[in-house]
Amino acid sequence: MMRSLQQSLDWRQEQITLYGKTHDVPRLQAWYGDKNAGYQYSNLSMRPLPWSPMLLELKQKCENASHCSFNSVLANLYRHGQDGMGRHADNEPELGHQPVIASLSFGETRNLDFYRNGTKDKVRLPLHHGSLLIMSGNTQTYWQHSMAKTKKVLGARINLTFRYIHEIAQP
Ligand SMILES: O=C(O)CCC(=O)C(=O)O
Ligand SMILES: [Mn+2]
Questions:
Q1: Which residues approach ligand 1 with their CB closer than 6 A?
Q2: pTM for the full model?
Q3: What number does CATH give the domain 2-163?
């Protein structure tokens, strides 16, 4: 599964602009989903790639396990220990109130750290090959999460986060 996702997904290097400087994000990403599960940012519309049979099969398994339905998946490829993800909450308006996010991990075990807003509380979850993490309820309201980089020499990890993207009214 790991090999086949690594070879078959359409991995892209996204960039981010911070304080006027453009950087590569420290991982590769791919976004798949239903045609109407896109975002609209002013005059820019972002469309997911169409589902592959393997992603649809994994989506079905996550739906069965979570009793929720999903219309898109954001895939992350952490190539080595120097790839990671900064602290954030998945709280975009398109995800709606109390979103359910089903997160599948493959390959190298990496730690997902959760930080309780306004406190020093931190919970470290090692995410092993084949594990399913379901974030739901108030997780995105009261917690942020991040995947720290590490100097350890590590192999690749793939993470699939299945989400339901709502169509939102445009201003
Ligand atoms: O790689 C992970 O386990 C976390 C990914 C994540 O937080 C995200 O895609 O929003
Ligand atoms: Mn996240």
A1: 74, 76, 85, 90, 103, 112, 127, 145, 147, 159, 161
A2: 0.94
A3: 2.60.120.590
